[in-house]
Amino acid sequence: MQEVRQHFLLVFLDHGYVTSLITAFLPLWKTMNSDLNEVENWFSGLWLTCLYTDERGIQCKAYDSVLGLPMDLQISRVLVLISIGTGGFALLTAFLGLEGVEMCVRKPDVKRGLLILSGVMTWVSGLTTLAPVSVVAYTTVVDFWDEGFPDVMPRWEYGEAMFSGWFGGLGQVIGGTLFFVAVCMGDYDLQRLSVPVSPELKPRTKHYLKTEVL
After folding, report:
1. CA 199/CA 96 separation, integer angstroms
2. Which among 70, 89, 108, 127 would be 20 to 30 A from 151, CA to CA?
């Protein structure tokens, strides 16, 4: 039963990590549509800016300078890279800590430590995914409602990648929490199996005195 729970959690973590990984490289963090020129749609991500037109399709271009980026994008890039690294390390340690993997089989304490480490790294990966998405979302809202911009100027809005980032990061945080729950349930199962079984009580026999009837 414990092995089934661990494999299920590993699949759950894998989906959350893949979602966060795809979100990091999608140029759909922010979108902008101009009312003056409806045939042009702009898309912006952490690494690329794309322009879509009906005539030429989609054209993407990397940012010219890293130092020239806004501070929120620079911070988001660093956090996303940390999320990718910690998430990959969490999946590796979780795989090595599974009961079905023929490694450290005779060392259950080592496997337990690997699962706990995987849960911590998954938490870090999920939080470092949620943080950049939330930062970019906050700056997008602030810029959208900035009264200093004329009303005729187009403004950036939320893109699809923002929601997938929230979904992936939240999935990783939940997965890390469930890993700790699985470890606690495994400890409980081991403790229950280690309790000695009380010997069976011998049936009591009644002794009757034989009396003679006069």
Report:
1. 39
2. 70
